[in-house]
Every structure is written in structure tokens, then in C-alpha cells.
Amino acid sequence: MESRRTALTWLSSVGLFGSAVLSAVSNLVFIKPRATYGQPSRFAIGKPDDFPPGTRISLDVKRVCIVREGNKMAAISTTCTHLGCIVGTSDTGFACPCHGSRFDQDGNVTGGPAPKPLPWFKLSLAPNGELEVDKGQAVDAGSYLNV
Amino acid sequence: MSIQIEEKGRKTGRVGDLPHEVWTSVFRNPWPSNDLERSSTSFTNFFLHIHPVKVHKHTLKPSYTLGLGLISFFLFLILVVTGVLLMFYYVPSTTQAYDRMLDLRGTVAFGIFLRNMHRWSAHGMVAMVFLHMCRVFLTGSYKKPRQFNWVLGVLLLLVTLFMSFTGYLLPWDQLAFWAITVGTSIAAYAPVIGKDIQFLLLGDSTVGQEALLRFYVLHVAVLPAVLGLLAAIHFWRIRKDGGLSRPEEEDALPAGNSGRGPGARARGAGRGGTAGLRTPGFCTRSI
Fold it and tell me: Do B208 and A37 form a contact (C-beta atoms < 8 A)?
């Protein structure tokens, strides 16, 4: 009698605890999206001719700044490394409106609370002649694409 | 005996008795005119039985608790009622949310009134819950046997703050957008799991449609359910821990102790209900 009671207690405890763990884990898996519907990490931004030499054009919606010096081009992130606001271009580089972080033209921190420099993203030329930015792939600061 | 016989006689069932039967089934007690009937009314009524039939007379002293807990609860009730009404007109979509919010202010009947009630009650609830916590701390009411209720209270504060945070995004204006951008970026600074928390909250890498939908569901369904459950256990524990926190009875203290020291207050707050019931200080609470 006693052993049957113990066995049943163990069995139901393991069952209840198991289902609790199972539902917690599956909820966590469920809540993590497998597809996202926002801005894709890789996107085309136009032909190199749209960016004349010497320009720095911020694409606020894409959160990236396209830099062209002569025939060298690069894509620098405009998402502040402090708390995610969009940095604006300034005379000396970039400046964040939220908490006053400042960056130089290459994205290095020159002031404010930002802990890291602005990352550079991989810029490539697609076969159709369009420039393509891949925000999933960071590259070393100073690596340019020759067009 | 005579009453029972009369009851038996009525069992033959006359249709004319039906309204009376329904009436007495709903209004089960006569209008109370003495302490026993008042107790019975309080005890058998779902809405009144949250209060004990009898309370310690010091519990009736409003200057001790300042009613901050109940004020928080009533603000929550206002938030539920106005929130459900706002849900009839709000759409959690990036293309519609802001316009719907403006429509609530401009075209919906009583919309601006409901929205402002919701907004001010939300601010008020955060403030009142915080002040309630301060009061509990300053009166030492978190001490034995109320430790578990303090833990519940801490959880309730966190859920209240999370309710406030999720609701902040829903107007979908610039203030909301950047506040949630910054807020979730702060969450991302948490060690190891920070980035995952941010991704799970936003459902994407930046604040967008997924984030708006997630915050909406958390705000109108998940968090209110959690808060309601925790609040129910919180209230239940008050009764189990001996009723509302109250000052020490002065005459119950040993001679030489004025009863004004912090230790004396804490002992008073921690006194159990069964011990308190036998003290002469109890009185019937008027309904």
C-alpha cells in the first residue's frame, strides 16, 4: 500500500513537473520568431552613380550611411551603439540626438556615452550593377569597395 | 418547529410564489439592523467577504496605511474598465495605431475622457504602488509573518512597471517609438541573455510591427492576467497574515516601553490574526 502510494506520488510529480518544463520550453521556442517582417538585413540601395564622389548620404529608414570618397565606397551604421537611436551626420562625423554621443567620420567614438564605434557593413556590387548592403556582415573600419 | 412545518406547506408550489422565490434567492439577507445580521451580510456576499467581518480598531486608523494599497487596486480597476473600452477602437497596426489614437481624442464619444482616465490612472498606479511599497517598508510591515506578501508585492511592482512600459508604445508616436527603442536597448545590456531578451520583446531587430503587436498582447492580455492573479493572492495573504497592518496596541506593551520605537511597531505589524482575535480591541466594522 505504502509503496504504491509512493510510486504514484513519484509518477504524478514527474508527470506534472515534466509537463511544466515542456510547456515552458515550447513557449520560449514559440515566442522566438523564425521569420521577421521588418527591414531585411540585406538590401539594394541603387547604383554607384547615385552617390557622387565626396558625398555622405544617410538612409535613415535603412539606418546606414553611404560614404563615397573618389571611387571608394563604404556603408557605416547609423544606429547609435549606446541605446539604438539614429545618429545624424554632423560636420565632424556623426552625432546622436538622444544622449549626445559623438563619432568621427569613420564612426570612432569622440565623446558621449557610446561604448563602441559605429560598425561598418559589407558593401558589394550585385551583378545587375546595384550596390548591396549586408547588415548581417560587419567589416573592419576602413575596408572600402572600389567602384 | 413551526417554521419547518410552514416551509413544508409551501412546497406544493404556486406559480404566484415564483417572483418571491427568485427575489429571496438573490437577496439572501434582510437589510441588516444588528451586528449579527451585518456580519451575516458581509460573510455571505462575494464582494463584501474580501473584508473580515470584524477588524481590529487600529485597522480603522487611516493614517497608518494611508490606504495606498487599495488606491492602487482601484486605479487598476479603472485601468481595466477604461482599457477594455479603448480596445473597441484601437488597432495595433503601424499604419493605423497613431490615427486611431488621434480618433480616440477627436471623434469617439467620451474618447478623450477615457484615454486621459487611462493615462492618468496608469501614472497614478505606478506612483501609488511605489508609495505603498515605501509605506510597507517604513512601518516594518514586511517582517514576519508577512515576508511572502512582501515578495508578492515586489512582483506586483515589477508587473505594474512592465504594464506601464508596454502601454507606452501603443500610441505609436515619436515619443513612444524612441522610448521603446531606448528601453529595449537597455534590456540588451543585460549580461549573456540581454540580446535575446531584446529580440524576444521586439520580435525583430528594431521597433516595428512585430514589437507593436507583442507589446499590445502583453499589455491587454498577458500582464493583466498575471497582475490579477498576483493581486488576488496578495489580498488573500493579508487575511492569512492577520489582517491589515496596524500599529501596536499601546496597553499591550511592557511597562517602560512607550511603544513608539521601530521594534515595537514591527512586532505590532507582525502579530498573527488568531492571537489578535482574543484581544479586546476588536470591533464590528460597519458596512
Answer: yes
